[in-house]
């Protein structure tokens, strides 16, 4: 399979993941928003739904731009085209800057929300009488997301404006800035993975040791659900970190083409796949959400039946 056909195939997969992510996370989000009593866990799942929606959408936008840039670069190397895709902050440069900044922010924020969800579940076992301030937790999620987005936009602006308009691409300042930015992603995700894993493990162990009359069925199912979400997050993000380490070690964005291509595919396919699977876990584990989905499917079937009957007449 030639490079162009492979790009089209990968982009098709990305579009499918985006559509499934919108459908699954949108349905799950609508359910949690209709709950009359929303606890901290419900609000964190709402945040995770919103972040997963952003991941699916921005991953497809970023991948589409990357494939176009990859094709333009190949065309230029073969003597066709002008290869001016990344020479200016206007137009496509601005599009890529915003799309990739949003994707990277959503990626990191999903790890933060997953970690907070796991820690909150652990606290419910370690300190059952301690009441976590819901407003403070939600404000921390919002504040962290805004800070990450601003930093990512500054990073992209620096890359597109300074690097592509000036002539010191390989200066020490540039190398240090890129290295610091990439290393921060590795550190943050590593911390999120470690804390979320330990918290979920502690919760599951304490759940097994809790008497049956103290740990009711709902609490048990919620704990196992959070543990599954944590496992999915760890598996997909560890895969991302494995390929991302090459980007941390490189001093420029334009490293070996095959390695850079692998990095894009893994980050823009595996991470959205995690976002698609999260609402599937909710449906499987939550009886009320599963009933909500079944009622929705039944309503759609009834409406389709009415439309078909009207069409026949």
What can be said about this structure in brief?
With 313 residues, the chain is mainly alpha-helical.
What would your notes on this structure say?
There is one protein chain. This protein is mainly α. The protein has a single domain (3-289), classed as Rhopdopsin 7-helix transmembrane proteins, CATH 1.20.1070.10. It has eight helices and no strands. It has helices at residues 3-34, 40-77, 92-126, 134-165, 172-209, 217-249, 257-285, 287-312. The longest helix has 38 residues, at 40-77. It is globular. The model is unreliable at 74-89 and 251-256 (pLDDT under 50).
Q: What percent strand?
A: under 5%
N-to-C order of helices and strands: HHHHHHHH
Helix/strand-derived category reads mainly alpha
Distance between the termini: 49 Å
User: Roughly how much helix do the residues carry, as a percent range?
Assistant: over 70%
What is the number of domains?
Answer: 1
- State the fourth-level CATH superfamily: Rhodopsin 7-helix transmembrane proteins
Q: How much is the radius of gyration in Å?
A: 22 Å
Task: Give the averaged pLDDT, no decimals.
Answer: 78
Q: What name does CATH use for the topology?
A: Rhopdopsin 7-helix transmembrane proteins
Task: Give me the CATH architecture, please.
Answer: Up-down Bundle
CATH top level class name: Mainly Alpha
Shape: globular
């Amino acid at each position: 399979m030639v490079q162009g056909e492979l790009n089209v195939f990968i982009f098709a997969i990305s579009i499918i993941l985006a559509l499934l992510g919108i459908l699954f996370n949108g349905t799950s989000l609508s359910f949690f928003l209709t709950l009359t009593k929303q606890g901290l866990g419900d609000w964190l799942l709402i945040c995770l739904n919103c972040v997963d929606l952003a991941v699916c959408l921005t991953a497809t936008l970023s991948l589409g731009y990357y494939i176009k840039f990859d094709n333009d670069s190949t065309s230029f190397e073969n003597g066709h085209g002008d290869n001016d895709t990344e020479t200016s902050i206007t137009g496509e440069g601005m599009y890529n800057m915003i799309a990739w900044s949003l994707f990277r922010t959503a990626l990191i924020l999903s790890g933060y929300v997953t970690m907070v969800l796991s820690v909150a579940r652990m606290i419910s076992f370690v300190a059952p009488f301690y009441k976590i301030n819901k407003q403070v937790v939600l404000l921390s999620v919002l504040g962290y997301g805004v800070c990450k987005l601003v930093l990512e936009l500054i990073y992209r602006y620096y890359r597109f404006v300074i690097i592509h308009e000036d002539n010191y691409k390989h200066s020490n300042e540039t190398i240090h800035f890129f290295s610091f930015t990439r290393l921060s992603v590795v550190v943050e995700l590593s911390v999120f993975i470690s804390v979320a894993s330990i918290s979920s493990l502690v919760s599951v162990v304490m759940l097994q040791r809790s008497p049956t009359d103290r740990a009711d069925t709902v609490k048990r199912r919620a704990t196992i659900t959070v543990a599954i979400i944590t496992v999915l997050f760890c598996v997909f993000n560890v895969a991302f970190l494995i390929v991302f380490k090459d980007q941390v070690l490189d001093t420029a964005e334009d490293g070996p083409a095959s390695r850079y291509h692998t990095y894009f595919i893994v980050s823009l396919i595996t991470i959205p796949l995690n976002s698609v699977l999260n609402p599937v876990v909710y449906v499987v584990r939550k009886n009320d959400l599963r009933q909500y989905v079944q009622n929705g499917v039944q309503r759609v079937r009834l409406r389709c039946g009415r439309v078909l009957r009207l069409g026949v007449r």
